Amino acid sequence: MNNESGQKGVCVFSVQTDYRCSPEYRQRRERNNIAVRKSRDKAKRRNQEMQQKLLELSAENEKLHKKIEQLSRDLTSLRHFFKQLPGASFLQPGSGTDCR
């Protein structure tokens, strides 16, 4: 409790501030302060967990993009290889056997 001079724990009695000095009010304030602290800690933990998850998913996303690039290069190489084989007409568009 702060009074007008800034001192803690000193109640200045008046009609308006009398309820603030009651034990019930102080208990409610203490419980509320604890609840607020707990809520803020929970939000902070949740934010940290989300940041960690973001880092993990970003790394996995980058890894998957690299894998896509590698597989695309492999596919291009294999298509080129099969086009060089004798009788590669089965790979020509419109032949009905394209594996794409």
UniProtKB/TrEMBL annotation:
<dbReference type="GO" id="GO:0006351">
    <property type="term" value="P:DNA-templated transcription"/>
</dbReference>
<keyword id="KW-0804">Transcription</keyword>
<keyword id="KW-0010">Activator</keyword>
<dbReference type="Pfam" id="PF07716">
    <property type="entry name" value="bZIP_2"/>
</dbReference>
<dbReference type="InterPro" id="IPR004827">
    <property type="entry name" value="bZIP"/>
</dbReference>
<feature type="coiled-coil region">
    <location>
        <begin position="33"/>
        <end position="74"/>
    </location>
</feature>
<dbReference type="InterPro" id="IPR046347">
    <property type="entry name" value="bZIP_sf"/>
</dbReference>
<keyword id="KW-0175">Coiled coil</keyword>
<dbReference type="GO" id="GO:0000981">
    <property type="term" value="F:DNA-binding transcription factor activity, RNA polymerase II-specific"/>
</dbReference>
<feature type="domain" description="BZIP">
    <location>
        <begin position="22"/>
        <end position="85"/>
    </location>
</feature>
<dbReference type="GO" id="GO:0045595">
    <property type="term" value="P:regulation of cell differentiation"/>
</dbReference>
<protein>
    <submittedName>
        <fullName>CCAAT/enhancer-binding protein delta</fullName>
    </submittedName>
</protein>
<dbReference type="GO" id="GO:0000978">
    <property type="term" value="F:RNA polymerase II cis-regulatory region sequence-specific DNA binding"/>
</dbReference>
<comment type="similarity">
    <text>Belongs to the bZIP family. C/EBP subfamily.</text>
</comment>
<dbReference type="InterPro" id="IPR031106">
    <property type="entry name" value="C/EBP"/>
</dbReference>
<keyword id="KW-1017">Isopeptide bond</keyword>
<keyword id="KW-0539">Nucleus</keyword>
<keyword id="KW-0805">Transcription regulation</keyword>
<dbReference type="GO" id="GO:0005634">
    <property type="term" value="C:nucleus"/>
</dbReference>
<keyword id="KW-0238">DNA-binding</keyword>
